[in-house]
Design a protein that fits this description.
The protein is α+β, with helices and mostly antiparallel strands and 175 residues long. It has helices spanning 32-36, 42-50, 124-132, 145-162, 167-170, and strands spanning 73-75, 100-104, 117-123. The protein is built from 5 helices and 3 strands; from the N terminus they run H-H-E-E-E-H-H-H.
Length: 175
């Protein structure tokens, strides 16, 4: 199983199984990284420019995979835990700890060279289980009672904020 630099588990054998399309890929199949970040890797940008910035991974005639691209990045944008399905519930103007945390599946393999950024969301309880035990992302898991309680507490506060209260109810008319 993949490990973090500290030696804890990330919960998967192959991070690319959980990777979506590259964050730099445009809807037309072009590499936005080569255009927007030319100065970071001029050689890569020149190679992409000669191919009209086409992404070789999505080219059916190419045998590239996401792992072959030096600038691949896939960050999950779903607002639910990839392991247990707990949904995020953020409260506006509140600094409470989020229910979901970004979980990195890919780290530097040789200790020096950063590998691709592949991230998903895990609730903080699944996140702890994955890093502190043998729990895997693919386990059939349900939200723990503490997670459900935190979610319901936030939903309750949200519903009370949405409730309508007339001015007559809010302010005592005797004053």
């Amino acid at each position: 199983m993949e490990k973090t630099p500290r030696g804890t588990s990330v919960g998967v054998d192959d991070p690319y199984e959980f990777a979506g399309v590259c964050d730099h890929l445009t809807g037309e199949g072009r590499c936005r990284y080569a255009v927007d970040n030319y100065g970071h890797d001029p050689e890569f940008a020149r190679e992409r420019a000669t191919d009209d910035y086409d992404c070789p991974v999505v080219d059916p005639e190419s045998n590239w995979s996401w792992a072959d691209c030096p600038h691949f990045r896939s960050r999950n944008r779903d607002c639910e835990c990839a392991r247990c399905g707990l949904e995020e519930k953020r409260m506006a103007h509140d600094d409470e700890r989020p229910l979901l945390e970004e979980h990195h599946l890919s780290y530097a393999r040789d200790g020096e060279t950063l590998s691709h950024e592949i991230t998903i969301y895990l609730c903080r309880w699944c996140h702890a289980n994955v890093h502190n035990s043998w729990a895997r992302i693919t386990d059939d898991a349900a939200p723990v009672p503490e997670a459900i309680a935190a979610l319901e507490e936030r939903r309750g506060r949200e519903e009370s904020e949405l409730g309508f209260e007339t001015a007559a109810d809010r302010y005592d008319s005797d004053e």
